[in-house]
Amino acid sequence: MIPGFSSRRRFADLSEREVLALAISAEEDDARIYRSYGERLRKDYPATAAIFDAMAAEEDDHRRRLIALHEARFGGPIPLIRREHVAGFYARRPIWLVENLPLETIRAEAEGMERQAQAFYERAAARITDAATRLLLGDLAAAEAGHGRKAEAFGAEHLGEDARGAEDRGARRQFVLTWVQPGLAGLMDGSVSTLAPIFATAFATQDPWTTFLVGLAASVGAGISMGFTEAASDDGTLSGRGSPVKRGISAGVMTTLGGLGHALPYLIPDFTTATAIAIAVVFVELWAIAWIQNRFMETPFFRAALQVVLGGALVLAAGVLIGGG
Prior knowledge:
Blueprint: E1 9-10, H1 16-41, H2 46-73, E2 86-87, H3 95-98, H4 103-127, H5 131-158, H6 161-193, H7 195-205, H8 208-233, H9 244-260, H10 271-296, H11 301-324
Parallel strand pairs: 1-2
């Protein structure tokens, strides 16, 4: 391959046989993707998995029809040509990049697959002047549009309102367990555990820069510790809490942010101004934690506020007293 030049062929340069072969390989790939989605979702979302199973079966049926057409028109072996061989052809993301996506994102990904295929064939048919090729591409566009209508029918058959509601609740629960719960624990730990050392340093030294360095070290150290602790505590296999890597990232990042929130004001050179802003940030953080507990963990807001705000205020007061003494 010459540097700077693509080795892919233009769609307009493909023969009718190659266009048909390309359609066959595309149907094979899409059926494989839908089947992978079904396997990925079968345990937690059986109704949606049934939709993808049916869509995969439809793609298999279209593939068989295309192969029969190829044999009738051209006979012989089917040329090996795939999406990546053709410039401008719609691409599919590797399955490992999408298999861990949320439920709604996977549904949207599948809908996008059908729209992309239909739009490509329609645009390709509009550019081709040969009557037989235009007819073939038009038929393929209609087939892809039919897939979309079939998907809607499968949805009505396999995914009624009750099933969709149950699966959406399951997806929300998984999101809470994997991201929100460890992130909230990290935010609480970072916000509260760093209060005492930061404010004790502030009132003991009255030096904003020193206070900032202590706060930065405490926040980053707590974030690393919390992230590794969360990831190592549970692999998610039995608890169903999801990937330990995701939980560790959520806990570690939120722990660090929780501490940095009231450390960053000490970048302001004036001690009084920096401290006033830091205290204001602390109370915003604490109320935000109470709101998250109420919103995602369904903790009564008054109880959450009493636990978090009162506890945080006591830790803050302890730091001020220790540093001021």
